[in-house]
Amino acid sequence: MGIDAIKALDGIRTAYQGDTVGQVYEGNRVFPVIVILDPASRARIDQVADLPLRTASGSYVRLQQIADIHEGPGRYQVLHQQAQRVQTVTANVVGRDLTSFVNEIRAQIAQKVSLPAGTYVQFAGEAEAQSRSQRDLLVNSTIAVIGIVLLLSIVTRNANNLLLIFANLPFAFVGAVLAVFTSGGLLSLGSMVGFVALLGITLRNSILMIAHYEHLVGVEEKPWVLETAIQGAADRLTPILMTSLVTAFGVLPLAIGMNEPGREIEGPMALVILGGLLTSMALNLLILPTLALRYGRFEPFCTRDGFDQPMRNGAPYTSFQLNDDQAPQPKRQKSGV
Question: Model's pTM, two decimal places?
Answer without folding.
Answer: 0.56
